[in-house]
Amino acid sequence: MNNILIISPHPDDETLGAGGSLLKHKDNGDIIYWINITNIKEEYGYSKEKVKKRNEEIKKVIESYEFNDFFDLSLKPTSLTENDIPFIVTKISSILDKIKPNILYIPFWNDVHSDHRVVFNALQPFFKSFRYPFIKKVLMMEIISETDNQFKETFKPNVFVDISDFIDKKIEIMNIYQSELGEHPFPRSIDNILNLAFYRGSQCNYQYAESFMLLKEVLD
After folding, report:
1. Which of 25, 95, 105, 145 could potentially form a cystine with 30 if both were Cys, beta carbons 3.0 to 4.6 Å apart?
2. Shortest CA distance to 14 belongs to which of 76, 62, 79?
Protein backbone atom coordinates (compact mmCIF):
# COMPACT_ATOMS: atom_id res chain seq x y z
CA MET A 1 0.00 0.00 0.00
CA ASN A 2 1.28 3.45 -0.95
CA ASN A 3 0.81 6.82 0.69
CA ILE A 4 0.04 9.27 -2.11
CA LEU A 5 0.19 13.05 -1.81
CA ILE A 6 -0.92 15.43 -4.54
CA ILE A 7 -0.07 19.13 -4.25
CA SER A 8 -2.17 21.50 -6.36
CA PRO A 9 -1.55 25.23 -6.78
CA HIS A 10 -5.34 25.71 -7.27
CA PRO A 11 -8.47 23.60 -6.88
CA ASP A 12 -8.98 21.69 -10.17
CA ASP A 13 -5.25 21.19 -10.84
CA GLU A 14 -5.41 17.92 -8.90
CA THR A 15 -8.12 16.60 -11.23
CA LEU A 16 -6.72 17.98 -14.46
CA GLY A 17 -3.24 16.70 -13.71
CA ALA A 18 -3.80 13.36 -12.00
CA GLY A 19 -7.50 12.71 -11.47
CA GLY A 20 -7.50 9.32 -13.14
CA SER A 21 -4.30 8.26 -11.38
CA LEU A 22 -5.72 9.26 -7.97
CA LEU A 23 -8.83 7.20 -8.63
CA LYS A 24 -6.66 4.27 -9.67
CA HIS A 25 -4.56 4.59 -6.52
CA LYS A 26 -7.71 4.58 -4.40
CA ASP A 27 -9.05 1.56 -6.26
CA ASN A 28 -5.77 -0.24 -5.55
CA GLY A 29 -6.16 0.38 -1.82
CA ASP A 30 -3.66 3.22 -1.54
CA ILE A 31 -4.04 6.10 0.90
CA ILE A 32 -4.46 9.46 -0.88
CA TYR A 33 -3.94 12.97 0.49
CA TRP A 34 -4.41 16.40 -1.07
CA ILE A 35 -2.68 19.69 -0.26
CA ASN A 36 -4.20 22.70 -2.00
CA ILE A 37 -2.09 25.86 -1.92
CA THR A 38 -4.42 28.72 -2.94
CA ASN A 39 -8.11 29.33 -2.51
CA ILE A 40 -10.54 32.22 -2.84
CA LYS A 41 -11.67 34.10 0.28
CA GLU A 42 -13.82 37.14 0.94
CA GLU A 43 -10.78 39.01 2.25
CA TYR A 44 -9.19 38.53 -1.17
CA GLY A 45 -12.07 40.41 -2.82
CA TYR A 46 -14.31 37.48 -3.79
CA SER A 47 -18.04 37.55 -3.12
CA LYS A 48 -19.53 35.54 -0.28
CA GLU A 49 -21.57 33.56 -2.80
CA LYS A 50 -18.53 32.68 -4.92
CA VAL A 51 -16.51 31.62 -1.89
CA LYS A 52 -19.36 29.45 -0.66
CA LYS A 53 -19.76 27.84 -4.09
CA ARG A 54 -16.04 27.08 -4.39
CA ASN A 55 -15.88 25.52 -0.93
CA GLU A 56 -18.91 23.37 -1.76
CA GLU A 57 -17.14 22.26 -4.95
CA ILE A 58 -14.02 21.31 -3.01
CA LYS A 59 -16.09 19.36 -0.49
CA LYS A 60 -17.73 17.39 -3.31
CA VAL A 61 -14.36 16.70 -4.91
CA ILE A 62 -12.93 15.43 -1.61
CA GLU A 63 -15.91 13.11 -1.23
CA SER A 64 -15.66 11.91 -4.84
CA TYR A 65 -12.03 10.85 -4.53
CA GLU A 66 -12.48 9.70 -0.93
CA PHE A 67 -9.33 11.52 0.14
CA ASN A 68 -8.02 10.33 3.48
CA ASP A 69 -7.24 13.92 4.42
CA PHE A 70 -7.25 17.38 2.87
CA PHE A 71 -5.07 20.37 3.73
CA ASP A 72 -5.87 23.85 2.42
CA LEU A 73 -3.23 26.57 2.79
CA SER A 74 -5.71 29.12 1.38
CA LEU A 75 -3.13 31.56 0.03
CA LYS A 76 -4.30 34.23 -2.39
CA PRO A 77 -4.62 32.86 -5.96
CA THR A 78 -2.71 34.42 -8.86
CA SER A 79 -0.61 36.30 -6.31
CA LEU A 80 2.05 33.87 -5.10
CA THR A 81 5.59 35.21 -5.04
CA GLU A 82 8.95 34.00 -3.79
CA ASN A 83 8.04 35.67 -0.48
CA ASP A 84 5.41 32.95 0.07
CA ILE A 85 7.94 30.12 -0.20
CA PRO A 86 9.03 30.03 3.49
CA PHE A 87 5.39 29.81 4.60
CA ILE A 88 4.62 27.06 2.08
CA VAL A 89 7.74 25.09 3.04
CA THR A 90 6.94 25.27 6.76
CA LYS A 91 3.31 24.21 6.30
CA ILE A 92 4.05 21.36 3.91
CA SER A 93 6.96 20.11 6.00
CA SER A 94 4.69 19.67 9.03
CA ILE A 95 2.15 17.80 6.88
CA LEU A 96 4.80 15.53 5.38
CA ASP A 97 6.13 14.63 8.81
CA LYS A 98 2.58 13.66 9.79
CA ILE A 99 1.47 11.60 6.77
CA LYS A 100 4.85 10.43 5.38
CA PRO A 101 3.89 10.01 1.70
CA ASN A 102 6.09 7.88 -0.51
CA ILE A 103 4.76 9.25 -3.84
CA LEU A 104 4.30 12.95 -4.65
CA TYR A 105 2.36 14.46 -7.55
CA ILE A 106 3.40 18.07 -8.12
CA PRO A 107 3.13 20.79 -10.80
CA PHE A 108 5.64 20.96 -13.66
CA TRP A 109 8.47 23.37 -12.94
CA ASN A 110 7.93 25.45 -16.09
CA ASP A 111 4.13 25.87 -16.14
CA VAL A 112 2.98 29.20 -17.53
CA HIS A 113 1.05 30.19 -14.40
CA SER A 114 3.38 31.89 -11.94
CA ASP A 115 1.57 30.27 -8.98
CA HIS A 116 2.57 26.86 -10.33
CA ARG A 117 6.22 27.86 -10.64
CA VAL A 118 6.32 29.33 -7.13
CA VAL A 119 4.78 26.14 -5.72
CA PHE A 120 7.35 24.00 -7.53
CA ASN A 121 10.17 26.15 -6.18
CA ALA A 122 8.77 25.79 -2.68
CA LEU A 123 8.72 22.00 -3.03
CA GLN A 124 12.38 21.58 -3.93
CA PRO A 125 13.59 21.07 -0.33
CA PHE A 126 11.39 17.99 -0.13
CA PHE A 127 13.33 16.27 -2.91
CA LYS A 128 16.26 15.72 -0.53
CA SER A 129 16.31 12.08 0.49
CA PHE A 130 18.44 12.68 3.58
CA ARG A 131 15.70 14.98 4.95
CA TYR A 132 12.63 13.09 3.70
CA PRO A 133 13.73 9.47 3.20
CA PHE A 134 10.14 8.24 2.99
CA ILE A 135 9.58 10.07 -0.33
CA LYS A 136 10.49 7.52 -2.99
CA LYS A 137 8.95 8.98 -6.13
CA VAL A 138 8.19 12.49 -7.39
CA LEU A 139 6.09 12.99 -10.53
CA MET A 140 5.40 16.29 -12.28
CA MET A 141 1.88 16.59 -13.68
CA GLU A 142 0.60 17.72 -17.05
CA ILE A 143 -2.05 20.35 -16.33
CA ILE A 144 -3.96 21.41 -19.41
CA SER A 145 -3.80 25.17 -20.19
CA GLU A 146 -0.67 25.58 -18.02
CA THR A 147 1.78 22.80 -18.94
CA ASP A 148 1.07 23.06 -22.67
CA ASN A 149 2.17 26.69 -23.10
CA GLN A 150 5.85 26.78 -22.20
CA PHE A 151 8.33 28.95 -24.01
CA LYS A 152 11.48 27.36 -22.60
CA GLU A 153 11.82 23.72 -21.67
CA THR A 154 8.70 21.80 -22.64
CA PHE A 155 6.95 18.99 -20.82
CA LYS A 156 8.41 15.67 -21.98
CA PRO A 157 6.41 12.80 -20.48
CA ASN A 158 8.26 9.63 -19.54
CA VAL A 159 5.66 8.01 -17.27
CA PHE A 160 2.21 7.00 -18.48
CA VAL A 161 -0.69 5.70 -16.39
CA ASP A 162 -3.58 3.78 -17.94
CA ILE A 163 -6.76 5.51 -16.72
CA SER A 164 -9.19 3.88 -19.16
CA ASP A 165 -11.30 2.49 -16.32
CA PHE A 166 -11.38 5.84 -14.56
CA ILE A 167 -11.79 8.44 -17.30
CA ASP A 168 -15.58 8.69 -16.85
CA LYS A 169 -15.19 9.35 -13.12
CA LYS A 170 -12.44 11.90 -13.78
CA ILE A 171 -14.76 13.78 -16.12
CA GLU A 172 -17.60 13.54 -13.60
CA ILE A 173 -15.38 15.11 -10.95
CA MET A 174 -14.08 17.79 -13.31
CA ASN A 175 -17.67 18.77 -14.03
CA ILE A 176 -17.98 19.80 -10.38
CA TYR A 177 -15.73 22.75 -11.23
CA GLN A 178 -18.24 24.40 -13.54
CA SER A 179 -16.69 27.85 -13.15
CA GLU A 180 -13.36 26.53 -14.47
CA LEU A 181 -14.77 24.85 -17.57
CA GLY A 182 -15.65 26.27 -20.97
CA GLU A 183 -16.55 25.11 -24.44
CA HIS A 184 -13.94 24.09 -27.00
CA PRO A 185 -11.61 25.72 -28.05
CA PHE A 186 -11.28 26.94 -24.43
CA PRO A 187 -8.39 24.79 -23.07
CA ARG A 188 -10.22 23.54 -19.98
CA SER A 189 -13.11 21.99 -21.84
CA ILE A 190 -14.33 18.45 -21.39
CA ASP A 191 -13.56 17.78 -25.05
CA ASN A 192 -9.94 18.85 -24.62
CA ILE A 193 -9.48 16.88 -21.38
CA LEU A 194 -10.75 13.77 -23.14
CA ASN A 195 -8.66 14.46 -26.24
CA LEU A 196 -5.47 14.81 -24.21
CA ALA A 197 -6.16 11.56 -22.35
CA PHE A 198 -6.93 9.85 -25.67
CA TYR A 199 -3.69 11.12 -27.21
CA ARG A 200 -1.60 10.09 -24.20
CA GLY A 201 -3.29 6.71 -24.35
CA SER A 202 -2.17 6.32 -27.96
CA GLN A 203 1.43 6.82 -26.81
CA CYS A 204 1.32 3.88 -24.40
CA ASN A 205 -1.13 1.50 -26.13
CA TYR A 206 -4.13 2.20 -23.91
CA GLN A 207 -7.46 3.88 -24.57
CA TYR A 208 -6.90 6.76 -22.13
CA ALA A 209 -3.86 7.75 -20.11
CA GLU A 210 -2.34 10.49 -17.99
CA SER A 211 1.28 11.41 -18.47
CA PHE A 212 3.94 12.64 -16.05
CA MET A 213 7.59 13.56 -15.92
CA LEU A 214 9.55 11.51 -13.43
CA LEU A 215 11.67 13.85 -11.34
CA LYS A 216 12.94 11.31 -8.83
CA GLU A 217 12.59 7.63 -7.98
CA VAL A 218 14.33 5.66 -5.25
CA LEU A 219 14.24 1.88 -5.71
CA ASP A 220 14.67 -0.19 -2.55
Report:
1. 25
2. 62
